[in-house]
Amino acid sequence: MEVEYTARQVKISKALRMQAEEGMERIARILGKNANASIVFSTQKRLQIAELTIKARMQTIAAEGKADTLESALRQAIEHAENQARRHRDRRMASKRLPKEEKMHAAPPVVRPKARAAQPEDGAEEVKPVRSGAKARAAIAVHSFPASKAVVEPHIVSNGEAFSLKPMTIEEAVKDAEFRDRDLLVFHNLSGELFVLHRRRDGQMELVEIP
Length: 211
Prior knowledge:
- 26% of the residues lie in helices and 24% in strands.
- The protein has helices at residues 14-31, 70-96, 170-179, and strands at 2-8, 36-44, 47-55, 60-67, 184-188, 194-199, 205-210.
- The longest helix has 27 residues, at 70-96.
- The two termini are 42 Å apart.
């Protein structure tokens, strides 16, 4: 995985680079080696900040860590990114393992024996007529239908963290949802328009505008 480092008013030590490379190797085993990552180190008063962004083929991960040291801040950011990568992999694997429809099995049809045609030939024996009381056999196909899936009732949870009290842009909402590890976020922009941001089963973020 290619990693780009940016330092703002801080110095990136060799030990910090080794820590970042080890963390990126663990994430690359989950997302694949084709992903690209960028790490920005900065400081705010006495707080050290590490911002991590990973772009894979079907997923973009944004994580942030804040601590007294850059090593601790980087450790937090890598842990958040690793958890998001695992959830994305699990969702993708779960979508591939959806049960397929059972094939319909048909029993072989019961074939009625063909009656030999009665042709008038010299010396040939007469064909005995079929008794009128005999029952005719018919071909019957037997089908097995897939079992009906159990209906799971929705689990209702009241959680105030799904609502953002301050206005934000769509980019800020996506970053906030990724950082707080939320699959649902309700927010409004500076114009007062209300939006719902949620994560689909394939891991993609979907934006819904509420009129």
